[in-house]
Specification:
With about 80 residues, the chain is an all-alpha fold. It is built from two helices and no strands.
Length: about 80
């Protein structure tokens, strides 16, 4: 899905480990941009994980329905209807 790279930027308040921030600032000249890139990667990975999980669910439902269509359901013999 991604995100709107042209969206306005706004300040946000975050509470982060002071030592972690100090070390990160020693490695990047633009901490905000670095965090934004990492956050975008996190979102991409989460969306991909969710899409894979949804695909797995759909595959299981399809397999279950195919099995029931071929062999019947386990409760069919107990139906009172």
């Amino acid at each position: 899905m991604g995100f709107d790279r042209t969206a306005a930027k706004r300040p946000v308040n975050m509470t982060l480990n002071e030592d972690l921030v100090r070390q990160a600032r020693g490695l990047t000249s633009n901490l905000s941009e670095t965090v934004e890139i990492l956050l975008a990667g996190f979102l991409d990975a989460a969306e991909a994980r969710d899409a894979r999980r949804q695909q797995e669910i759909e595959e299981h439902v399809f397999a279950s329905n195919a099995f029931i269509a071929k062999h019947g359901g386990w409760a069919d013999e107990f139906s009172a209807l």
